[in-house]
Fold:
Amino acid sequence: MKESKIRGADIVVRALIEEQADLIFGYPGGAIMPVYDALYDYHDQLRHVLTRHEQGAIHAAQGYARVSGKVGVCIATSGPGATNLITGLADAQIDSTPLVCITGQVAAHLLGTDAFQETDVVGISMPGTKWNIQVRRVEDIAPAIAKGFYIAKSGRPGPVLIDITKNAQVDFGEFNYVRCEGFRSYKTQIPVEKSAIQKAAFLINMAKRPYLLFGQGVILGKAEDELKSFLEKSGIPAASTLLGSGALSQDHPNYVGKLGMHGNYAPNLLTNQCDVLIAVGMRFDDRVTGDLKRYAKQAKVIHLELDPSEINKIVKCEVAVIGNSKESLALLTEAVTQKSHPEWMAKFRELEQEENAAVINNDLKPSKVGLTMGEVIHNINQYKADDAVLVTDVGQHQMIAWRYFNYKKTRTQVTSGGLGTMGFALPAALGAQLHDYSRQVICVVGDGGIQMTIQELGTIMQTKAPVKIVLLNNNFLGMVRQWQQMFFDKRYSFTELDNPDFIKIAEAYSIKAQKVTDRGDLQEAIEDMLIHDGPFFLEVVVEKEDNVFPMIATGCSVEEVRLS
Amino acid sequence: MKRYTIFVITENFIGILNRITIIFTRRGINIDALTASESRLPGIHRITIEVTATEDTVIQLVNQIEKIIDVIKAFHHEDESVVYQEIALYKIPVSKLDGGLEKIIRQHNAKIIAAEPEFVVLELTGHKEQTQELLEILKEYGLLEFARSGRVAVAKRMLTIDSFVK
Structure:
């Protein structure tokens, strides 16, 4: 469908519409102004949300992408606008989040001259993107965007950056959009090897104590049903990584808990007692494995993974099943025999009781005066919707919220896993909420992290996104303080915070706010918050020096997981 | 640690070399030598990287290189499974040319490829050990300048890049 020539900036916007982008986040500036001018014409087809900082824009795009499964889009100008995206790019890269980021760039004839707001963003963003490109001619805009969307969402998803010089945005070109469906250097469909399935099934069928770990790969591969069927036929207990949470309902009988440094007791401990370890769509992060020399040495490892470079990267496996987990899990389900492992499963349940007695009961129903982070999440569980999305920042509150939130549906977990980006939660929750106004989005955040991107309360005000913000305030950078207590002789070096009046800040942004300091008020406040029509800011003042347990200290083995 | 040759077959796009080298930089691994050239297929480049590493490391490197979107294929080989050459140039002052040097040039199969009033340039093609040996000798002859190329290599395996380019 050829037509008369249009501006490069219009090509950018029309290409986004062709890619079915419906919501984008961004911040204008000199080198991207032609694109903003074009957005003005297409605002009925493509909604743009102005954040208060480019980092807010990219985290919002990440939140949007994580709950929707679609490609998140954000726009920024050249120079500082572009460099403000870098943290989000690195975060999306390590957490496999599909993004297309468009940055303006100075005119092509000024490249390399230190022009105003010129920075080599393609060079700077190279290690933090799945792919990036600079477009200097109007005719290259549409093919670059088509390729960018294809790369961002296919295979193992990731962030893409497209840097467009100003001359390309203002020049006129033909718009003849062709979506990208692949190219020769990039193979996304790797057929699952039947022999690998047979080998894996053989090991599984022979196993006495098989154990399955699942990660975000199950969610990205849309393999939740296949995981469930596999577990139900094989009778294998299954534990989740941080980003895998939600892929299997926590009510499922095969679900045994969470892995990692602050995961559950049994899933960590029993990693070193299983005989066959099946890892699905996860990459053996060091926060999951602890000391590698003492990690699952007794087990034969089967690794189901889409990205071949993850095979044998950290843990050497007996059988590698490369491919989409949706396909490989289905084939594996056919190949295994129907079984149950009651004695082995009972071991998980026994240790679960130990964890309940030593940690969980005190966290959820404390006898002491001060409020715990755990009881806040416990109360949220009583009133939240089944498909409520939990967005968390980074630190103690993140681990506690993850430990105690009752995940029932897929794509209900949005957090910065691999990079550990403080300041992620508030803008990510905004993005998740704007994808679907009717869905409950609960943003649990600490008093440190919220102050890194607190300006996005302005975007929440302007968009009226009904995000429920729960600030767990201990007036400390709590996780660092916990480490200082445990490993640095309680030398609390620069971790205590003199905080502002958060309620006044929220109210200044016209957001309904409430502060809870007493246990007696907590339940009602949470109920009020969740039924409130619009954004709500709930500050809960929690015990200042509580610690997160269980814990596998750095350098320790999974079997050295501590309950206190 | 062993010496490996990594072959990278890639699209000829701006920045591809940067994407490859940061994989080494990030892991603190030194590239011993690197050459890039067009392949026999138009638009496709081949990059030859020489690296000293353990086999585990080199496998990780190759996996990461192959993950780059515009890279078509990457392989690694030990020295025994590639045919390779390097070229070295030596600049010697004319005043040092004597019968002894002439004998050395003959013994090493080196060539004089340029003669200027003040110096001559010798060329030797071979493995690094050979060009290095000549370098050590020529240091005694007032060597003015020395340059050695990266490795150019072809695999002994009967496999062509056409099978990866479709």
User: Anything to note?
Assistant: Chain B touches chain A through 20 residues (CB under 8 Å).
